[in-house]
Structures are given as structure tokens and as C-alpha cells.
Amino acid sequence: MNRSIRAALPRTRRRSTAAVAAATALVTAVGILAGAPAAATGKHGTAPAPVVTRAALDPQLVAGKGARVGFLEQEAENAVTNGEVIGPDRTAYTLPSEASGRRAVKLVPGRHVEFTLPAAANAITVRYSIPDAPSGGGITAPLDVAVNGKRVRSMTLTSEYAWLYNQYPFSNDPDADLLHPDWWITECSCVPAATSPYPTIQKPFRPSHFYDEQRLLLGRTYRAGDRIRLTAPAGSNAAWTVIDLLDSELVAPPRVRLLAANVLAFGADPTGRRDSAPAIERAIAFARRTGLDVYLPPGTFQVNRHIIVDDVTIEGAGNWYTIIKGREVTLPNPAPDGSVHTGVGFYGRDAADGGSRDVHLSGFAIEGDVRERIDTDQVNGIGGAMSDSTIDGLHIRHTKVGLWFDGPMRNVRVTNNIVVDQIADALNFHTGVTDSLVAHNFVRNTGDDGLAMWSEATANARNTFDHNTVQSPVLANGIAIYGGTDNTVSNNLVADPVREGSALQVGSRFGAEPFTGHLWITGNTTARAGTYELNWNIGLGAIWLYALDRSIDARIEVVGDAYLDSTYNAIMLVSEWSVKDLYSIDNVHFRDIRVDGTGTSVVSARTAGAASFQNVDARNVGAVGVNNCGSFHFTPAGSEFGLTDLGGNDGGWLADWQLPNTITCDDRPPVVPPPPPTRW
Question: Which end of the chain is more exposed for a tag (fewer CB within 10 A), N or C?
Fold first, then answer.
């Protein structure tokens, strides 16, 4: 989310259902197993069986969770390579820590990694990292693509949209001094500006956001069993190329709409050489007069500002074919909202002006040009207020936030979109968004919360985040709910948050309205979650409830979640130290939970309050099952946080002697990495 409001914590395609089913059946038929050796070889020189994963996990561990997508994921570390497998590592500011599954393959020039297609495909997505320029700003480098030993394409990789440094809101300059020398930092356990002599800070300071991804149409359809080889060619100007994963996909032909306002008829340029924004706006105006839809045919259309949409349907030929691409443009004077740039985006009218209604956007890609974080900038892919609207099948990358909705607004459905490589969030319901759905969206490599509801000033209510996949948010949380009423987070898959956040956060912070009514968190799966909180110097939970601005006392039901391979705790409830005697967390109920692997505890309580537990099963727990510090007064009566055992809690993590509020406080317990999760 935008962080113009700082808390006391200064932290920094869908294919047809039939096609997806066919691909899934083929994956099963070829006997794919997660975690196969990286350099496996087949008999008589044949290609080894491919290893398909979801969020770097065996797909059977996450069946029914996360987004329905048209591609199959293969991790580079499970492919055949003569490069170097790097990781695993969950330490922030390292290349493997930001990789899916915390491992990747590093290629020096001349080295390769080769994937075996698990199903027919005519398109691939490569997630990669290459070095920054010595002074920042990025470089470009080639990557050769060969199929069955024959070179078919060359991709031009770039690091122009990667590599951020320093403290929030970050810098593109690797040689920059501390942006906030008055903030406490873990590197010296001090406030540098108040320390004499001034500490030496290693530069570049806190590098992050290493990865980007590119898509490539292969020009023809290849069969299951064909081999895709990615090679960093000899003579590449990149000293190394890290390949994280390859997604392969069978992309349908472009959609054609004959009875529509085709933007070409209004002067749009599909080559991307000329600005097409005026032509698209003329097509929109014509469509509204005539009752037609707007059609964006295959091509790349240059748009360098917001297209205002209201009462209109805009459909592309498919997000692999129709690209709306723009440059970030510096405004001659700051806008009233504080923006100093504009860029490509489709925006509803401001809520203060009545907002927009009946907007339907589908089947195209939005590619921005955002390389720095400026919270006041409106340089998002989708923005404004859009009630009674749908956003479906878009591919959004290189914007600040993929979809940032400023309410009040109601009844928007955001479905089947892919949002990657963002400077900040993928999606944020900000202020008074109600009765809306976010479902089957795939999110990867955000610079802040993947999906968020932020009830600033006006509560969000009755919204649902369901069956979404969020992978590798570089900062903050996979899914975050900041206040609101009767909202639901269900059946999502969240993996690999990197620092200062969790897979799931329930937070009373950022000036949010209180939680009221119910909050349902049901049927979610998290993997390798629970990061290291720099400012507190402790590990967080896979799910993290945080009382900073006020108490949390609405009824919170956490039902049917699975927390897999948590780096620190599975469940954490905490109040900020400065308000620990003012606020508490109560009325939280955990039921039918499975915890498979924690580095420390199942439950860490660092607040006053209470929670109940029923049928919470745990195994491979690194430390004591309950780390109960309460509000750190260590009274003779026990902890200020109480646990209620409603029965069925298996695995020995919740013992009678820990109930109801025995103090079992180890402020920073040692971490015992758990084994990989397995079927329960």
C-alpha cells in the first residue's frame, strides 16, 4: 500500500477450463514430482520428467488453493543445468531470498538451464535477475531460447525496473547515503544520526527488488516432452543471469470483435510509435453514443497518461496480443493530489466527482514505466472509483500499483488478472470499497502488500479476496487487511514474503477504521512465510495480527488454514511496544488449522488479549509450541494473553501446563529450520 502515512514502525490468462483440465491431466500422466534432483537425466539421453510446482510446492499440497491460471510453473533448480543452484536463503537482500521457493539458478556467460515441457505450449514467461549498472539505472542483456537444441528466439532482459536500495521509500542509487539517518537500523543497532562516531554503513545499503519477468510467444506450438533451453550467451555484458523459474502456456488465438468500436478506425497506432491515447478516447466517446463496446486489436499502443473510463466496455484481443504501453511523464506542475508524474492507466472518475459506473475492462496488458517509489504519484495500472464494474483477464506490470481503488465505491469484480513486478502493491481497496470481489488473480514480485484492504477514513465492508495466488512480495505482506467490517480472505495461496511482513496480516494501523462485525480468514495456505522484522529484530508469523492504532476486538474466525514451512512462527499476535498497555487483541478463534513446520513456535503472543484454539494440529515445531510473553509485565498471575483450548489440538504443541496463560516467553528463540512440508 502507499506509505504516505507512516506508523510508529518506519518500514521501510486465463485459458479455457477445458484447456486447464487437459493440462492438469497431462501433468499427472507424466508423473511429475516436486523436489526432483536439479540435474536429473533421462534414460538413453531422453529428457527427464518435468517437475511442475505451484509456489515451489508439490501441487497436491495446495490443491484447490490459489488462482486458476493457464500456465504451468517449473522452478529452475529442478531443471537440468550446468549453472550454479543458489539458495536456499531467507535472509533479506540476497538473490535467493527473493526467488520463488528461495532457490534459483545462476548462469555465467555460456551456461544454460533446460526445462522439459510438461504440456503443449506456445508461450513462456521467464522470471530472472541480471545485475544493475554500477551507478544504478539498470542494464540490458541477451538470453537465448532454444527448443530441442535449435535456437528459436533471443530475449533482451533488463534490470531497469529492478534494483532498489536504502530505506523506505528507497533509491535507485546504489551509492546513496542513508535516506533516514534518524531511524533506528539493525545494521548498527543504533540511530546513526545520534551515534558518535557515525557508523560505517556498507553500500549499496539494503539492495532489493532484484527480479523481473518477461513473456515470449514462441511462434508455434511445441509438444509435451520438448526441451526449452535458456542460455546466457558467451560475450553477454551481464556478468551473471539468474533464472528463477519458467512458466509455460498454450495461449489461445487472439479474440476478434467485428461489431465494436475498433480503435484502429479512430487513428490508433498498433506499432506503438505514435501516441494512441486520443484515438482510444475517441473510440470510447463513439462507443458510449452508439452503445457499442470498444475493441483493442492485437498490437502495442502507446499511452502515456490516464484514460478516463465510465459506462464503457473495453475488450482486447487477449493480454498476450494487446499491449497498452506507456512512458512515465514528469508533470510541469504537481497535480492537486500531489502527483509529480503521470503514466499509462485506466482510471475511473474520482469518488468526489461521483465516480464511474458500469466499466468493463478485459483481455489486454498494461505495461508501465515506473522505476521509483513516490507515494503521491498516481501511476497505477487501474485507478479511481469504479462501481458495478469488472476487471478481467488483464496483465499488468511495471506500474506503481496494479489496481488502486479510491472509494467510496461498490460492487467491483477483479478476476483472472496477472499483476507482476510492481513498485508497491498489486491491488488495494482504499477507503470505503464495499460488496466487491477479488478472485483468481495471480500476483508475483510486488514492492509492498500483494493484496490489501485499507479502511482509511471510511471502512471497507463485505469484500472477499478468494482463490488468489500471491508470491514473493519483496516488502510487507502477501494479503493485508487494515480495518473494516465483515470482510473475507479465503482459499488463497501466499508464499515467500521477504521482509517486514507476513503471508496474512490483520492490522490496526495506518489510520485505519476499526475492525467491526466479523473477519473471516478461511481455507488459505501459506508457504515459507513469516519474515524477519528489521525494526523489532524479531521473526513474525505466517499470519500476523497487529494492534498499533487501537485494539482489535471484532470477531475474527481463522478456519481451515494451512501454514507450511513457516520461517519463524505460524501464528503471531502483537502490540507495538509503545502502546502495549493501551491496546489488546481479543475474540480471535483458530479452528481446523494445520501447521507443518515452524522455525520457532506455533503461537507467539506479544500482547494482552485472548484467543481460542480447536483442532489445530502441528508438527515439526522448532521451539516451544506457545511463546507467550503477553505485554511483558510478567505478573504473578501469569501472562496478559490467555489461550482457550477447545479440544482436538494435536501434536503436543498446546499442553495443559501452558493454559490458560502460563508465561513461556523467549524473546528471540533460536530458529530450527523445519523439513520440507509433506502431505498430512
Answer: C
